Amino acid sequence: MVEFVEGWIFGPTLGEGAYGEVKLVINKASGDEVAMKMIDLVKHPDARQSNNGSNKEATVHRMMSHPNIIRYYGQRSQANMEYIFLEYASGGELFDRIEPDIGMPLWEAQKYFKQLISAVEYLHQKGVAHRDLKPENLLLDSHDNLKVSDFGMATVFRMNGKERRLEKRCGSLPYVAPEVLTRAYYAEPADIWSCGIILVTLMAGELPWDRAGPPCEEYAAWLEGKYMDYTPWKKLDKAAFSFVKNILVHSPSSRFKIEDIKNHRWFQKNLYNDGQSDHDTVDSPSSKSPRIDEDNFGRNCLSQPEYTKQQNTSSIHIDIENRGGFSFSQPAAIGDLLLSTQPLQATQNSSQNSSQNGSTPFQRLVKRMTRFFVKTNCDETAKRLVNSLDTKNYDCRISENGIVTVTTVDRRNMQLIFKAIMVEMDGKILVDFRLSKGCGLEFKRRFVKIKDKLDDIIMKGPVSWPIAIATNTLP
């Protein structure tokens, strides 16, 4: 494994963002774990701009101290790289808990929504607007508590008691308030609108519309009171619908404010104790949604593979032995990450680290539902995976180190990119799917279809208890 600075080594890649990967950094002595956001200023020159750069993001984020906001530790710059060090949220992404077209139990949706509102209320009290709230930017800690992340689009809208209207159009289209698309807008109602869309997604497992404006017919129907012709609203009970309807008001001045939300009976009612812990929403259609930034509405996720032609599966060979991999020893003082001079480039033997510390790669990874073990080796698994995809609708790129990158277009005609990484664990092959760009719900829909097609090679038997816990494959 690569040692980043003395005493700290790289763990696995946790995810991808607008300008680079997010990696786990682990201290070998103390066991501290930190998420490190890496921004390559050569690959992403627009990250240098003051409005989008890491300096502004860090300046805003370091102001925050709240149990439902990812903690900011610090930042360092080196050559053409920027590093931001953040709290590690081992529970994974909130969108991973949403079952497409179903949602999640109402009590659970209410729990996460309450935590989201608590975080947003704190931000607004600080005079900060997030401007890109969506399930992909909401993480979970080891106790399943929600953590707001990604302050790349955040801005200060109120200072010294003076509030300014915002003009920059940013966010992810299905979650963006209608006024953001058309004119200067007030920050607080726009963030509250996004919270309302998130709640619908949690309860119904789908987005209500592509965008809150023309030419979207679902939104036009909402404005005309014809919403019951569309599936999201059919899934909500009367109390939940009444609540959401007051949040998703077209006019920002008439929209529920934070206090209105907190005083509503649906918000105050304890759904878990009211016997709704097993409540399932049912039926039906679409989250890492296209992020909009100014007029091109296109701030992309960090890693952006180009469309490539599908590879010939007969020639696939994956060199898993020589692949740069995971580090299994542990994250001493976080200050070392910020103050150390040059990151080291020495490579250590990962399997040796693993055995010494008694842990496995995926025990250091975030929880994720989109994984499974297979009976086949890496080469055969990659071939089966590629062959399971419709060549007309998917483009695949297979690297020698065992990463399959799949590029397609979702039902909303937005680009969707995900990766499948094969990892040898305990003598078995684990296939780990990770979203790179696009809608989280669409990604999970595709994963379910792929998993069904590979059913004959997926292991059904038990795995060791530590690995089962780490990979969400408990029987």
Number of strands: 20
Integer count of domains: 3
CATH class of the largest domain: Mainly Alpha
The number of helices is 13
Mean pLDDT reading: 79
The low-confidence parts are: 277-290, 294-311, 313-362
**Biggest sheet, in brief?**
6 strands, antiparallel
CATH homologous group name of the largest domain? Transferase(Phosphotransferase) domain 1
| Beta fraction | 15-25%
Q: Would you tell me the structural class of the helices and strands?
A: alpha+beta
| Helix fraction bin | 25-40%
Q: Which shape, going by the Cα principal axes?
A: globular
CATH topology of the largest domain: Transferase(Phosphotransferase), domain 1
Q: What's the gyration radius in Å? A: 22 Å
What is the CA–CA distance across the termini?
Answer: 32 Å
The CATH architecture of the largest domain can be named as: Orthogonal Bundle
Strand order within the widest sheet? 1-2-3-4-6-5
Oligomeric state of the chains present here: single chain
Organism: Aphidius gifuensis
Keywords: ATP-binding, Cell cycle, DNA damage, Kinase, Nucleotide-binding, Nucleus, Serine/threonine-protein kinase, Transferase
Family: Belongs to the protein kinase superfamily. CAMK Ser/Thr protein kinase family. NIM1 subfamily.
InterPro entries: Kinase-like_dom_sf (IPR011009), Prot_kinase_dom (IPR000719), Protein_kinase_ATP_BS (IPR017441), Ser/Thr_kinase_AS (IPR008271)
